[in-house]
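Input chain follows. Return structure tokens only.
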Amino acid sequence: MFIEGMVVYRQGIEAERYVWEQVKALFSERESFGFLHFPMFKRNHSGKREIDILLVDRELGATVIEVKGININQIEGIQGHIWHFTTDYHSSTGEPFNQAEQQLNMLCDDIEKKAILYRTFSKRAVVALPYITSEQWAERGFNQLLNTPPILFKDDFEQGNWVQKLERMAIYKARLALHDHKWLALKKHFYIKDPEEVKTEKQNHFSYLFVFTSEKQFLKEKERIEKALREGLKIYIFSSFSISNSWLALQKVFRDEFQLQVFHSKEWSYSTDKLIITDGDAEKSFLKDILAPAFPHFNYGQYMATHTPHTDNLMITAGAGTGKTYVMIDRIFYLLEKVDITLKDIVMITFTNASTDEMKERLQKRLLTMFRLTGKTKYLYFAEEVKNMQISTIHSFSKSILIQLAHEIGFGRNVKVRSFIKTKSDIIEKLADEFFQNHSVKELVKLGLTYYGVINMMKSFWDEMEKKGLTRQEIESLEWGMVTEEKYQILHDLFQYIFKRCEGLLEAEKKKENAIDTGDMIRKLRLFTQSDKIKQLQMDKYLFVDEFQDSDNTQIELVASLQNQLNYQLFVVGDIKQSIYRFRGADYTSFERLEKRINSGFVPVALNQNYRTTSSLLTKLDKVFSVWGQERWGPKANACLLPYTEDDRLKGMEITEPTKQEFLHPDTKKDVLESETVHHIRQSFAMTERLPEDENKRIALIVRTNKQSLEVRNWCERAEIGTLQNLDGTFYKSDAVLHFKMLLDALLYPHEARFVVNLLQSPYFGYEIPSKLLVSFKGNNDKIIKFLQSHMGNDFTQYLEDLRLLPVMAVIQKVMSEKGLLQNIQSYYKARFENELTIEMSVKQYEKNLFHLMNIIQQQFDSMSGTLWSIHEWLTLQIRVNRNENEPMIETKSGVVEITTVHRSKGLEYHTVIMPKLTQPFSHEKTSFYVQDEKEMVGNERIVGWRVNKDTQNNHFASLQNYESFEVEREETRLLYVAMTRAKKRLILMMPKRTRENTWGRLLELALNEVNHED
């Protein structure tokens, strides 16, 4: 048995985990047990020591392993017990062997208080250096030192012969092997149980499913059901009779939390006395073909997704509004109960930071609810453990892997993240200059091109390659095709010259700075997934991946490698109809591709019961989706626009009668689009005002782009309708972040007038400085600063003095508090907007964004690294390149309409959805560069198509453009599907009178015409 303490990330943890995995691999088949991070407390708890790795083996005795995650260059020297270290930032000392020996003595003193164990087992203290080879150690001469302690090196672990070496390292060697009774006593000291003891323990269960055909059967099991509910088990009851309302009322708290689910059908009869299914252990055909049809409200898909044996990989296709988050949490509870794991054994990858926060919040809430229902303290323990659970976005998860394995690809332990935008630009220019030393630039001029025009074009090519997730090797081996005319050969040669060299030069710069860019956090994973280096990570985890349909090829490879090489059990969930991130390299065939790459196969489960949209509206939408699902679209008229078949049809669980108002698509002239949209918003407000307080009253205007949202917001402003915007990747462009950056600018550069003026006019200080007062200084920096100081005294400079004494974040908090930032925000927005509701929502959003920024900074920096310069540098980078972070959502008020993009609306639901902008073209005619999709490759060659102007292109461009055009049309159809399925009760499409090709309006018109014709 090998036991891990709860691990919070700290420096050196990856090295400890690596050695821990080596220990488990070699000793799991022996009579052994071990602990990762074994705590020991002194008498009266006056102090604590913690052993990195404690190994107890019947033959070898007790071994304390002190792990140091350092490389050879970080050791300056060894003096006696004292080792001198140096890092990027400071020097330090340590006594690794002395520390291990003292820990061993403290441990053995406690064990040997039992007379039966006194001096009966061998003792060892060892230092492990998993990043240093014995050869490197010898080259520094450390092996010649008399004071060199017993050490396990990197090559010892790689060669797998370190057990023999360990045998020679005893501090004390027992004369005899441990007899059975002494080995048993040693195990009992650590509360290690024999397998026979474990077998006799009561087995945990997650759920019972009861099928009753008579009330007598139910009454006989009633007490057992009540007890099981109090124990925390999930109960499903199916009956052919009505169960007493009084009993159901007593169980209301369990029913409200879906711990008790009761299904009743008078028409159903089943020839059995009763049936009890434990933890889903039943014939699949009985559940699917007999029980599910007879009880239509029973969610067979959710039941199977939760109860499939933990040894199976699950592939969940979850349609819109089918409760996938609920199912993921239920599955976690199943694993906690049935497999007896803890939350640290689970890894969950979400799509956004907001999803990460939501999942943690919902899981913790569910655990606290279970404690309230059962009184069991284990749920409190799990709830506390949630904050340390590894729930993160794919970028954060990838970064954690890169940090652990950075040494394998030539990077140091403290690898940083930066943009390299300027570096990449310099590399392109440097290589272009080299190329034109042997070629004439005049050749470009003859083609009507400019040098810097071509330079900028190549920068955009490089960006597109990175978006597609291409690695250095893939970029260097791209197939550039042939030019259509000989005079364009110089461009072909230039592109090949640049892109066979640029990644290598960039890689060298990155290693020099020990830094990567944000794209590397995904791309560089292929260096591990295509080798066995990934085996250094911890094994046997349970991996949940949400929104898997938006995974790119590298992410698919990562998930497959974790399963194939590290035995991760997979739970991947998504919906290919909602794959809408192709522009980031996502591939809607991700499920198919993953299935082909893993060795052990998947159990497929479909979730089709929709809890969002009314059944009558779903029926109407189904007709539209079915048209797009027909295989008659595309260049060859043999493909579908939307992967939608009979199996994808959503079943509405809220049964409603159809109404004329639930699905509107009025023909609307361009000149009345604004007024008609406003009319429908007001009409929707009037309808939702009459609804009960606990119903969803939210109304949304869903658009394609951030630019469209600003236009629609202006419509609402003119109509004095309050708005709340929910847009894509706008967090680092929000007022709260930009104003915070102004504060950092001024604190860091207090003698730069432009920074100080910006800050003083921001809500932090709230000054009004008429520009005409500054014009007279003609841009003289010193005069402007002197002028400002003469009018405001030390109102700002006092905080510069504080920076000498206080941490930067303490000074910033002081500015916020003393200058009344939260009060100033109100005045700031009153000057910008007239509508009171818009002002109120803007203030709330500002506050939410500011708190979100504070949390991110707190997570990003500790008290030592959080300097003014480092925070400023980090935030400047985020503002420049980060378009993934979204603004946190705030709760809307009645009378406020939400304006959101489709991408941002994903996962949300509204009473009424209005889609006013259906005429935006989505063709890619202006695109000048295409990279072939990996699934379209023939062999190992990946082709590219490029075009410089209308007449200048390579031979691949036309075919790739045709392919891309249809793929874009498909993605836009999926975007429409996502937008339309956000509606709970009503959907309004503001259809243009005349539609154009390659627009949402045309896609909808084609489908609606066919639906209307059939009706």
